[in-house]
Specification:
The complex is a heterodimer.
Chain A (H helix, E strand, L loop, with lengths): L1 E8 L6 H4 L10 H5 L10 H4 L5 E4 L11 H8 L4 E4 L4 H10 L3 E3 L9 E5 L4 E4 L4 E4 L5 H9 L2 H6 L5
Parallel strand pairs in A: 1-2, 2-3, 3-4
Antiparallel strand pairs in A: 1-5, 5-6, 6-7
Chain B lengths: L4 H8 L11 E5 L2 E5 L2 H11 L11 E4 L9 H17 L4 E2 L7 H7 L8 E4 L13 E4 L2 H10 L1 E5 L3 E7 L8 H12 L8 E5 L8 H9 L8 E3 L4 H9 L18 E6 L6 E3 L7 E3 L10 E4 L1 H4 L2 H11 L9 E4 L4 H9 L2 H8 L2 E2 L20 E4 L15 E4 L2 H10 L11
The chains are: A alpha/beta, B alpha/beta.
The structure holds iron/sulfur cluster (SF4).
Iron/sulfur cluster binds next to α4 and α9 of chain B.
Chain lengths: 161, 421
């Protein structure tokens, strides 16, 4: 599967409190959550994010709370993929479980760079700089969850054991 | 194959004799937890998938603690959804206003977790129960939905960092200082995807409340779980609260660890984590005059009776500084009542503190003590991220109950030895 989008860049330790502040967690409506996505780290995020954009961040992306509202808000805001040097573990599993593509890749990205990701081939191209990267495929076990279209489907279909 | 304590518990829950770090497993859960924020999302997923029955209504706990007593209409709608789900599925362990408490203080107190259990919760601080010799870890709402339906969770078997403790803590230094010190050492992603396994002769001197506080903040180092060996104190605690018969697992002596960290408890001092990461710990020789506006004593980290006793000992006969709001939030109803019986409430009110019914409240910037732009709070909670307690330009300083109480009196970040008389 291929994704192309423009990079929105952030640093290390982007936590779930800035991805979706707790003051908005009195709802689980994905659209309402998306309207406040990244608000405390980037107040203009909601205006500038375009369908297909790719978040490119540093290490430990999504640290903090277990709130699945965080990947849900990112996904609903139109982001097609998150690329980071590393992910906090609960964010990582939430993204897999709900089908938000995430990639571990230590690359050089600037705001607005056009990135093309091939999830199957494990390649990422920065079209703006011409740099190419590869990233490791998901373990087979997780691949089954992704292929099934998320955890609930995988469990119902007995795909993982 | 030698295994860590965590690996042994995981092996026992997926029917294998041995496991090694990196294996992916589907494990049986002994308890599945959710709160008023994460359960509604899990219920959506559960219903969307067409699930009808829960795997075992006795092995699910739903605790309405974050925005309760309902802070607004939206929050009321969320708890209502969970209340109706619990009643529809016949889940007895649904805890609402009047009997609820902050989930990670409530579950151990009600004997709902025992040594050797595998617990998952749609709340990142579910790692707290490692103090009882259980494997417990935070997951997301879809994980919770799958576990409610099938009683299973997928896990990647973690490697472990061994934390060897020696010595004994000094007065007014507590579990909070131990864990803030550890996070300062290894960083907020220092234990990413790993277990933190605590061992050594220093364990025996730590109270159960200290151990619960330490495991609670394992997630702040990125860890999957924190875990303590089971000793006489653990067994006495479990029997007091009427927990199920414990299953005691111990790490093999030749288990492999990715790293070993030694901490001499007797050398530790009070640590304060400065904004905006729990790894920004400073000791008092590095802290100047930092004026504050609010103090919070509470949360799943430090809202237990020993925390309230510590704060009361310092506040007794003293007054909260003018211009400082001091909030005391007992973590459960039982702790609240115990504080009344011991006369702690009178001490707090005399000192000028406000005492609240149990709630997460300000810990996550929900309600009951939100900060305005530029305000500073010393809190016994566990996170000081940007905007955690209110305005993105407010600041949270994480500290022990002793430091929080002394700071309330001084109007600036302080430890008990800085108080006059
Ligand atoms: S007290 Fe704070 S950290 Fe603990 S469960 Fe509540 S919001 Fe989370």
């Amino acid at each position: 599967m291929q994704l192309t989008g423009n990079a929105l860049c952030y640093g290390d330790n982007v936590d779930t409190d800035v991805i979706i502040p707790a003051r908005y967690l009195n709802t689980s409506d994905p659209k309402e959550l998306a309207a406040h996505c990244m608000e405390d780290i980037d107040p203009n995020f909601h205006q500038k994010v375009k369908l297909g954009d790719i978040i490119a961040a540093g290490s430990n992306f999504g640290c903090g709370s277990s709130r699945e509202h965080a990947p849900l808000a990112i996904k609903t805001a139109g982001v097609s993929c998150v690329v980071a040097k590393s992910f906090a573990r609960i964010f990582y599993r939430n993204a897999i479980n709900i089908g938000l593509p995430i990639i571990v890749c230590d690359g050089n990205f600037s705001d607005g760079d056009t990135l093309t990701v091939d999830l199957t081939a494990g390649t990422l191209q920065n079209k703006t700089t011409g740099e190419n990267y590869t990233f490791p495929p998901f373990p087979e076990f997780l691949q089954k969850i992704i292929t099934a279209g998320g955890l609930m489907n995988a469990m119902a279909g007995g795909d993982i054991a | 194959m030698p295994m860590t304590m965590t690996q042994k518990i995981l092996a026992a829950h997926c029917g294998r004799d041995t496991l090694a770090a990196g294996y992916m497993i589907l494990a049986d859960t002994d308890l599945v937890l959710g709160n008023d924020i994460t359960s509604p999302v899990a219920i959506n997923e559960f219903q969307k998938a067409g699930c009808d029955c829960v795997f075992d209504c006795g092995k699910i706990a739903l605790v309405m603690d974050h925005f309760t007593p309902n802070k607004d209409i939206k929050a009321a709608k969320q708890t209502k959804k969970v209340r109706e789900f619990a009643s529809d599925k016949g889940i007895p362990n649904y805890f609402d206003v009047g009997e609820m408490g902050v989930e990670h203080a409530l579950l151990p107190e009600r004997g709902m977790v025992t040594a050797g259990d595998l617990v998952i919760g749609a709340d990142s601080h579910t790692c707290t129960y490692g103090a009882l010799g259980a494997f417990s870890s935070g997951v997301g709402s879809t994980d919770m939905a799958a576990a409610m339906a099938y009683g299973k969770v997928w896990l990647r078997v973690p490697s472990a960092i061994q934390v060897r403790l020696t010595g004994k803590l000094q007065k007014h230094v507590s579990g909070k200082d131990v864990v803030l010190h550890l996070i300062k050492l290894i960083g907020v992603d220092g234990a990413l995807y790993e277990s933190l396994e605590f061992t050594g002769e220093g364990v025996a001197a730590l109270t159960m409340d200290d151990r619960l506080c330490i495991c609670n903040m394992a997630i702040e180092a990125g860890a999957k779980n924190g875990i303590f060996p089971v000793d006489d104190k653990t067994l006495a605690f479990l029997s007091d609260v009427g927990a199920k018969t414990p299953r005691v697992f111990a790490a093999d002596v030749d288990a492999a660890y990715s790293r070993v960290i030694d901490i001499d408890l007797s050398t530790l001092e009070s640590v304060v984590a400065f904004p905006h990461l729990p790894e920004n710990g400073k000791t008092f020789d590095e802290i100047g005059d930092v004026k504050i506006d609010q103090v919070v004593v509470g949360s799943c980290t430090n809202g237990r009776i020993s925390d309230l006793r510590e704060a009361a000992e310092i506040l007794k006969g003293r007054k909260v500084a003018k211009g400082v709001r001091a909030l005391i939030i007992p973590a459960t109803q039982k702790i609240w009542l115990q504080a009344v019986k011991e006369g702690l409430m009178e001490i707090f009110v005399d000192a000028g503190c406000a005492v609240s019914t149990p709630t997460c409240g300000p810990c996550l910037g929900g309600h009951m003590g939100i900060l305005a732009k530029g305000e500073r709070c010393v809190a016994t909670t566990n996170r000081n991220f940007v905007g955690r307690m209110g305005d993105p330009q407010s600041e949270v300083y994480l500290a022990s109950p002793a430091v929080a109480a002394a700071s309330a009196v001084m109007g600036k970040i302080a430890r008990p030895s800085m108080l006059k008389d």
